Amino acid sequence: MEMNTGKQLLVDDRIVEDIWNVRRQVIRPAKCIDNPLMVADRPWEDQGVAGCYVLFDAEENLFKMWYNVFNYVAWKNEEDHCYTYWICYAESKDGLSWDKPDLGIVEYEGYYFGLLQIYYSATKATIDIQLAFSRDGKHWDRLPTRDVFLGLGTPHGQGADFDSGMVIVSRPVLVGDELWFYYTGYKAVHTEFSNTYAVGLAVAKLDRLIGRATPPGEWGLLLTRPLVWEGDTLETNVSSANGTVQVEVLSEDGEVLEGYERASSVAFSGDSLRHPMQWKDGRTMGALRSQRLRLKFYLSNAVLYAFGAKNGVKS
After folding, report:
1. What is the reported pTM?
2. SS3 for 231?
């Protein structure tokens, strides 16, 4: 079984042989403190702006957004108006401050991710977002816990956040080491026609869509299936500010390799997208090139998102 990238996201169990006291959890992107980023401020935008599709044009160094507005008058007079939604355009230099110019006359690391709109019709008529994932685009799965990926804003003493009723998200834009998710936030629920809506932003760190986490204050382990190692350094995407991460290298048959025991692994405590795991005598993974081996991660109050070798891992 060939892996098409050196980096291995820990979304499914394809490369995981065994785990103990470690569960998968969805990692929510952080909503931008400046939300909403774009609101209705043109006469034709009526109650709000919604349904955005955003891409980054590298040639022009510009974020570009296509969004739609719902025209209430057209909806009430369908015999005289053929379309009730209008497509509009906005652009931005930083992805945060948006301009609406006058116009003269859009797969990730070996996975497909689906942003599912979950409508709670039997309860509150709200919509939030869950993650679905697939290796081939045909067979899909979700975490059995049905974790929320992008949730609603919060009602509060001043009324409610602009996105406290529903959220609709578009595909992310890669900005440096972050994934930017532009989304439409609705203040009221789906059954309230007098809704207002605006465009917001939620930000996730690179590759941190689903992580393998220990319960708070506890430890656990993750054992991979056999991999053909091709690299000098084992890099991990991990957060363990209040805990530690260590790794042990085993043969394909499960025997611990000398010099790569857990006791020799330098424990990492912190938050890093690309932390190089180390051993106390300074040895590297380069000595294990082309060998079939297993990796055993020991996690203490930590979350492991991905790992990889610079030159790739095959299985």
Report:
1. 0.77
2. coil
**Taking a C-beta distance cutoff of 8 angstroms, is the pair 50, 197 a contact?**
yes
* Phi, psi (rounded to 5 degrees) for 110: 85, 0
Counted residue by residue, the chain has a size of: 315
Cβ-contact 164, 154 below 8 angstroms: yes
Domain boundary (205, 236, 254) is at 205
**What pLDDT digit, counting tens, does each position of 186-200 carry?**
998 888 877 889 999
Q: Of 188, 130, 181, which is closest to residue 163 (Cα–Cα)?
A: 188
Does residue 244 lie within any of the structural domains? yes
| Structural contact between residues 57 and 64, judged by C-beta atoms closer than 8 angstroms | yes
Same-domain status, 270 and 303:
yes
Three-state SS at 297: strand
Q: Are strands 112-119 and 85-92 parallel, antiparallel or unpaired?
A: unpaired
Please state, in angstroms and rounded to a whole number, the distance separating the CA atoms of residues 153 and 185.
8
CA distance 68 to 48: 9
For 303, counting Cβ atoms within 10 Å of its Cβ (0-12 exposed, 13-18 middle, 19+ buried), the class is: buried
- What distance separates the 2 farthest-apart alpha carbons in the chain? 79
* Domain identity same for 85 and 173: yes
Residue 227 sits in the same domain as residue 292: yes
Query: 3-state DSSP call for residue 74?
Result: helix
Residues 186 and 37 occupy one common structural domain? yes
Over range 128-143, report the average pLDDT: 86
Closest to 63 measured CA to CA, from 31, 96, 102: 96
Residue 77 shares a structural domain with residue 219: no
CATH of the domain at 281: 2.60.120
